[in-house]
């Protein structure tokens, strides 16, 4: 059973959104080729789904500005612009994405006291989203993942997939993903590789 996981391909992370990833919208066309290829038995997407006033937002902390380091529940936390607030246009999956072919959408980041980069669990690793159980229930043996952003949600999702889905082959599709910081992207790919996640091109996935 081969699955494709599309991570946070949302308006908020694309140009014009509240937390845009450079060229974030360019992953949509590649993702659609993967979705439409017939190579995958299961298509899953994750969706950042924050309540208003989430603790990771700089606006929730007096004197803090976006992209400064702060704390959340006593732990270091990057302060983000308000983004992907539940039931807003910013939180919607990109309208160009072939959403009708997605079998399951896993929402994340709903606890205002902890951020959630990974599609599988919150950053404090105390609360699971349920995605790992869903994929195990579908008897997934291979998982390709891609999306936004490589150096945050994609990386943490890939690493958690290896840990939480033992025996499943996990691959990262590089050209169907974009990151925030070039140096961070390079480091993220290396960190994923060390954890057993191969970086591939969409042409490899479609071969």
Automatic annotation (TrEMBL):
It comes from the Bacteria. GO terms for molecular function: metal ion binding; nicotinamidase activity. SUPFAM superfamilies: Isochorismatase-like hydrolases. Residues 3-203 form the Isochorismatase-like domain. Pathway: Cofactor biosynthesis; nicotinate biosynthesis; nicotinate from nicotinamide: step 1/1. It comes from Rhizobium lusitanum. The keyword Hydrolase applies. One of its GO terms (biological process) is pyridine nucleotide biosynthetic process. InterPro entries: Isochorismatase-like_dom, Isochorismatase-like_sf, Isochorismatase_Nicotinamidase. Its EC number is 3.5.1.19. This is Nicotinamidase. Belongs to the isochorismatase family. Keywords: Hydrolase, Metal-binding, Pyridine nucleotide biosynthesis.
């Amino acid at each position: 059973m081969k699955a494709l996981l599309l991570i946070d391909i949302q308006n908020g992370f694309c140009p014009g959104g509240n937390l845009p990833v450079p060229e974030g919208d360019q992953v949509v066309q590649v993702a659609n080729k993967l979705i439409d290829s017939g190579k995958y038995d299961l298509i899953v997407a994750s969706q950042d789904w924050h309540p208003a006033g989430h603790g990771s937002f700089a606006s929730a902390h007096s004197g803090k500005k976006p992209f400064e380091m702060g704390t959340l529940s006593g732990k270091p936390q990057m302060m983000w612009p308000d983004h992907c607030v539940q039931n807003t246009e910013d939180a919607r999956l990109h309208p160009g994405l072939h959403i009708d072919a997605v079998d399951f959408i896993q929402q994340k980041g709903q606890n205002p006291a902890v951020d959630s980069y990974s599609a599988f669990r919150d950053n404090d690793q105390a609360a699971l989203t349920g995605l790992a159980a869903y994929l195990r229930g579908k008897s997934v043996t291979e998982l390709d993942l891609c999306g936004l952003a490589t150096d945050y949600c994609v990386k943490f999702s890939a690493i958690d997939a290896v840990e939480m889905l033992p025996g499943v082959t996990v691959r990262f599709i590089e050209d169907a993903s974009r990151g925030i910081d070039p140096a961070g992207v390079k480091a993220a790919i290396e960190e994923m590789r060390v954890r057993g996640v191969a970086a591939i091109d969409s042409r490899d996935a479609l071969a």
